[in-house]
Amino acid sequence: MVRKKIVIVGGGYVGFEVAKELDAHADVTLIEQREAFVMPPAAIRAIVDTTLLDQIILPYDHLLTEGQVVRGRAVSISQSDVTLENGAVYPADVIVVATGSSYAAPFKPAGQSIDDFRQASAQVSAQLTEAKSVAIVGAGAVGTELAGEIASAHPSKDVTLISSDDRLFPMYPARLGDQLKRKLEHLGVSIVFGQKAQDLQSVDMPFNGSVALADGRVISADLVFPVIGSKPQSKLLEALPGVAFGPSGRVKTDRWMRPAGLSNVFVAGDIADLGDGMTIVAISRQTPWLVKTLKRVLGGGPVEEQKAYTPWKLPPILVPLGPVVGNSWLFLTVGDWITRKMKGSALFIPKYRKAFGLSGDKK
């Protein structure tokens, strides 16, 4: 029996897991520009612990046992194939586009080069070592974790976290933000609420200088981290007829993760406007649904007969403030021990190294 072909564009958290789960059920081709996967949450701690870099850069060589990982950049897709920049065409019965998002350096690779990512991380780490004062613009998950990591590893540094909101994580019950605020302040972090930064020197990489706030205050720092959110990488879908985008640039879909008018193309992860946030935990609900649905579709079941996708009402979130303390929302607010056990201690590094077939796991 000839197995159906599935082409997955993007080897991030959704793409690589869907490829791995379907490897035994279809003829899988995973298309990815980079030679290795990088774990963004662990990249935050790698700034204060450079020994982690080798642990969080995971080559795709041993990800699949039957399918293939093709290094290249997809430039167009249709209902039946994906075309790469080098002209290669990969026919498909099903296509999944999970091209992810970009983020400020050095938390995600800015381009195709893993060496460039290594250099950027090492450079920022060296700048941080020399800095006496640090300002972090943006108090989402990355900014809050970064403040905690720096304050935990470098307690003598002056760390300021700047939030445009009136409290941390305002979408969640107040207890979560209140406890994180108290723990950050106990670590020595100063928090500025309700202020937007004006005219930042850079929005995609750390810089030396000052941050002007909306109320006229100026915060000077030896190193400023702009961490003001992810940007969906959805350009590949712009040329497809009927595809619509939300205000943030995410792709609108039907109830089965398909852009309008495309019966066998699915979008997932940060580029998909499904009601989930652009965090790893927020999109974690999508992967098992997509795997289950695609198994049935590959077996001949119509998509519309499958249960439609429903997003989190309020997704879980894990916020370690270094390796020891933190808080999380797991449908109720939990504290240091659970946050440490679930994420803070090992940052999921052993789990993902095992998924990529790598030895020498971090204990």
Which labels suit this protein?
363 residues; alpha/beta; FAD/NAD(P)-binding domain; 6-stranded mixed sheet; 5-stranded parallel sheet; 23 strands; FAD; electron-transferring-flavoprotein dehydrogenase activity; FAD/NAD-bd_sf; N-acyl homoserine lactone synthase; FAD/NAD-binding_dom
Q: Sum up the overall morphology in one term.
A: globular
- Rg on CA atoms, Å: 21 Å
Distance between the termini: 43 Å
Task: Describe the largest sheet.
Answer: 6 strands, mixed
CATH superfamily of the domain at 5-33 and 72-103 and 230-305: FAD/NAD(P)-binding domain
Family: Belongs to the FAD-dependent oxidoreductase family.
Domain Pyridine nucleotide-disulphide oxidoreductase N-terminal: 5-50
Organism: Shimia litoralis
Pfam family, one: Pyr_redox
